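Mods, move this if it's the wrong board.
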Amino acid sequence: MYIILILITLLSVSAATFMYISTFKILNNLNKMLDDAADGKFSEKNFTEHSLSRLESKMHRYLSAGKTEQKRIIQERNAIKTLVGDISHQTKTPISNILLYTSLLGEAVQQNNVVDTKEILPQIQKQSEKLNFLIQLLVKTSRLESGVITVTPENNSIKELLSKIDHKAAAQQKNINITIDDFPDTSAVFDLKWTAEAISNIVDNAVKYTPPDGKIFISVKEFEMFVSINIRDTGIGMNEEETAKIFTRFYRAPSVSSEPGVGIGLYLTRIILKKEDGYVKVKSQPGKGSEFSVFLLKNSNLSEP
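Not the wrong board. Structure tokens:
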């Protein structure tokens, strides 16, 4: 009888000791997690789910979520800093020019120099229009990137999409012939308004960098999963190194630095297409023109929510 009582006592003491050690270990782990989180050193790799109690697991998930949110905030902050830096850099030139021409205009008015006034006013208007165009593009891009403006992909007609692309006036000024190959109408999944803007940016570039009397060909090809819209021109073309950079923000090839533009249209195109599970690629050779291919997802391949 005494032996049984002794065994029970020993088991009770062992269980209590085990519980104490286990609780102490859990509290130690929780304390370390909180200390690491406070010092910004919390790392998921230091903890594994199978080695933790339920309470530790919950604390681990909570702190991991906090670290993920912290990373997201840092990324957003860096994106804002980059955007502000880009805006500052890109608007510096037109603003300086406007101030310069305004100063010259003031001098011309004081001297009653009508000839100088007539020459300066168009320059102020030109720089103001450039600044306005740049700011609109920057605002549009930042809203798309931050999700303030959403792209809503729906099943739409390719012919309706191409009917919204109109660069006839700009092409006629350079006597450039734009031809759209005949094709049976097909549909794909895209946001009609934003995708029209994405393709317009490509056509605008084709007109801009194609010499007078050149040609631009637009064709449509249907694949099993995608519909491609191809814009081919007889323009100046570019080398392989440039094709890898043209979809980055504000990139402009040295060979076209004298042409009007800010280098954000193709960047915007890439963002729009990415948001609707499409993509764009380009092939080009210097002196032999370029061909941009926009791929839009077909309705049967629309991923389920």
